[in-house]
Amino acid sequence: MKHISILVLEDATMSSIDSSYQILTRINDFLKYQGKEPFYTIEMVGLQANTALSKGLYSIHADKTIAAINQTDVIVIPLICGDFSQTFAKNKPYASWLLSQYQNGAEIVCLCVGSFFLASTGLLNGKKCAIHWAARNEFVSMFPDIHIIDDNIITDENRIYTCGGGFSYLNLLLYVIEKHLGREMSVLASKMFEIDIERKNQQPFIIFVGQKKHGDPQVLKAQEYIENNPEALYTIDELCTKLAVGRRTFERRFKKSTGNSIAEYIQRVKVEYAKKQLETGNKNINEIIYEVGYNDTDAFRRVFKKHTDLSLADYRKKYRV
């Protein structure tokens, strides 16, 4: 048996709280149908009896307050929305309780950008964390000591689970169910709730947005030139000459400011341009490759696959308007 505390955080989304409750409750039903005892005791846990969500659109009644929970086995941190700094302040009373429960052996299941709140407690320092691609830059600027994972949807480290992507928390719940009760139960839940159990990364969904809140005007000027000229063919030396900067020093500044090397940044911009052409245009794939400045079609195919986890043909088939 495991006791699960689903936190009713301020600024949490109703859907992530309710989905967690419904899926975990149904696991007990599945066990009952198999003639087995329930495995989860699930409670909504808050700071007070009732919490308003979505600017008062919904209200959730907590089964217990954190003061009444001396020990729990699993803590679910829901997806949050709004201004993250304000959210930290509103939910600060949870922090010491969360730290205490983790030190006593509790697992923490953090849904999508709920990781902003978890990171604010210090529990993610030095650990891996998956984050929604659209929130990556903000997360990195706020928590530079946390290791962001881009290629996988889910991270699992020292009893802390995180996930990237809006509704990928459904995959995280399946993952946790599998750890607790085995693959068979996870597959059953996948089938009953029609969740794609094989979804492993968020690369096909990413829209590249460069980090620009860094305060280095020359790096920003380089970013703007790269983004405004996705079809141009130029070397890094030529870019540095245009900006009147030394290559070695500027490459270090660029990497520090954006999190990408100059070469990676150019690749990401060209891939993003190619994605738009595949989604809306009628040009054949080789034409698109030449248009983004690659003469070696195989080289660009590898670059595209690296950043999207799809071939150009598969991307067009999946996303073409």
Automatic annotation (TrEMBL):
PROSITE patterns: HTH_ARAC_FAMILY_1 (PS00041), HTH_ARAC_FAMILY_2 (PS01124). Keywords: DNA-binding, Transcription, Transcription regulation. Residues 220-318 form the HTH araC/xylS-type domain. InterPro entries: Class_I_gatase-like, DJ-1/PfpI, Homeodomain-like_sf, HTH_AraC, HTH_AraC-typ_CS. Pfam families: DJ-1_PfpI, HTH_18. Gene3D superfamilies: 3.40.50.880, Homeodomain-like. PANTHER family: ARAC-FAMILY TRANSCRIPTIONAL REGULATOR, REGULATORY PROTEIN POCR. This is AraC family transcriptional regulator. It comes from Niastella koreensis.
